[in-house]
Design goal:
Number of helices: 9
CATH topology of one domain: Rossmann fold
Mean pLDDT: 92
Shape: globular
Strand order of the largest sheet: 3-2-1-4-5-6-11
Radius of gyration: 19 Å
CATH class of one domain: Alpha Beta
Strand content: 15-25%
CATH architecture of one domain: 3-Layer(aba) Sandwich
Distance between the termini: 42 Å
CATH superfamily of one domain: NAD(P)-binding Rossmann-like Domain
Order of helices and strands: EHEHEEHHEHEEHEEEHEEHEEH
Structural class: alpha/beta
Low-confidence stretches: none
Length: 311
C-alpha cells in the first residue's frame, strides 16, 4: 500500500516509520514542512532507506496514494500552551489538504491522528461510547483549544460520510524515543532516573492509558486492512494504570525516588484529567487486540531508554 505520512517529524510518526522500516507491505512517502530534518533523522537509523521524503505541500501534486496518515499537531503540553488558539488554524490547514486530496481521489483512505481531548470533558470518569462533549462555549480558555481543534476536524470528517476517514484518538503514548524534556509524568520520571534526582509529584491520583508503538502500529494495520469506513476509534491498551502504581513500579524496577507535593507539578495545557482513558472498545471490531497493558508499555520503554543512555 502506498501511504503518505503527513507530519513525519512527529514522534509517533517516527516510531511508526521505525516499525515499518523493515517491511515490504507498504511504500511510505514522508511529508513534512522541513524535509531536510526528515532526511537527517532517517540517516541516523536507516542507511539506504527506501522511503521517499518530500515537502508537506507536495501532497496535492501526487495522485498515487492509497492512504494518508495525518500526524500534524503538537507533541507536548508546553507546546500546546504556547500555541494557544493557533492550533485551530494549524489543524484546519493541514486537514484541508488531506480532505481536498481524498475528495479528488475517493479510493484513498484518510487516517487522522486525533486525541482523547476531543471529548472536552473533565474526565472524572473514563470516556465511553455514550460520553458527550461538554464545552463552556461562553468562556473558552487556553485549555480548550487543542481538544476543540480535534473536535472541529472530526465533525468535518463525519460530515463527509461518503469518504473513508478514520480518526484515531490517542489518549497517552509512551516511547523510548520521545522528547524526555516534555512535561509528562513518565518523562519527568525518566529525567529523574537519568539524572539520579528525586521526582516531585502532586498528591492527586490519576489514571492513564499508555499506548505502546507496537500496539499503535497493530491498530493502524487493522484499520488499513478493514473495509473502507468513516468512523472514530479510541485507542486503548489491555489496561490503564494508576499513577501511584506506576511510580511504585518504577521505584521497584529502576530505583526511582519520589516525593509528594501538595501543590500541582507539571504542565496541564488541556486541563486536569483524573481518569484520562476510554472504555470504548469499538476498535476490537476491526480485529484490534492490544498486546500490552499500560504498565508493561511504560516499563519496557523506560528500560530501553535507560539502557541506551547510561551515564
Amino acid at each position: 500500500m502506498r501511504i503518505a505520512v503527513m507530519g513525519a517529524t512527529s514522534q509517533i510518526a517516527r516510531d511508526l516509520v521505525r516499525t515499518m522500516n523493515n517491511s515490504d507491505a507498504h511504500e511510505l512517502t514522508l511529508l513534512a514542512r522541513r524535509p531536510d530534518a526528515v532526511h537527517a533523522w532517517l540517516a541516523t537509523f536507516a542507511r539506504g532507506s527506501r522511503h521517499k521524503v518530500n515537502d508537506l505541500y507536495s501532497l496535492q501534486r501526487n495522485a498515487s496514494f492509497d492512504a494518508i496518515i495525518n500526524f500534524v499537531g503538537v507533541a507536548n503540553p508546553a507546546a500546546a500552551a504556547s500555541l494557544g488558539a493557533q492550533i485551530l488554524e494549524i489543524t484546519r490547514s493541514v486537514d484541508d489538504m488531506a480532505m481536498a486530496y481524498i475528495e479528488r481521489h475517493t479510493d484513498c483512505r484518510y487516517i487522522f491522528l486525533s486525541s482523547g481531548a476531543v471529548y472536552a470533558t473533565s474526565f472524572d470518569e473514563p470516556a465511553t461510547e455514550q460520553t458527550c462533549v461538554n464545552l463552556p462555549i461562553n468562556s473558552l480558555g487556553a485549555e480548550h483549544w487543542y481538544g476543540l481543534a480535534k473536535f472541529i476536524a472530526e465533525a468535518r470528517h463525519r460530515a463527509a460520510a461518503n469518504l473513508a476517514i478514520v480518526d484515531l484518538r490517542v489518549f497517552s503514548y509512551v516511547s523510548r524515543y520521545q522528547d524526555m524534556d516534555a512535561r509528562f509524568l513518565v518523562t519527568d520520571a525518566v529525567r529523574a532516573l537519568r539524572n539520579n534526582q528525586t521526582l516531585y509529584s502532586a498528591a492527586s491520583q490519576n489514571v492513564r492509558d499508555y499506548l505502546h508503538p507496537r500496539d499503535f502500529h497493530a491498530l493502524l494495520e487493522c484499520v488499513l486492512s478493514h473495509a473502507p469506513v468513516n468512523t472514530p476509534l479510541d485507542c486503548y491498551t489491555r489496561a490503564p494504570v494508576e499513577k501511584w502504581k506506576l511510580l511504585k513500579a518504577l521505584h521497584a524496577e529502576f530505583g526511582l525516588s519520589c516525593e509528594v507535593l501538595e501543590s500541582g507539578a507539571g504542565v496541564n495545557a488541556t486541563g486536569l484529567k483524573p481518569m484520562y482513558y476510554s472504555l470504548n472498545r469499538r476498535a476490537a471490531t476491526f480485529g484490534y487486540a492490544p498486546s500490552l497493558d499500560s504498565l508493561g508499555a511504560v516499563l519496557e520503554e523506560v528500560e530501553a531508554y535507560l539502557a541506551e543512555h547510561k551515564q
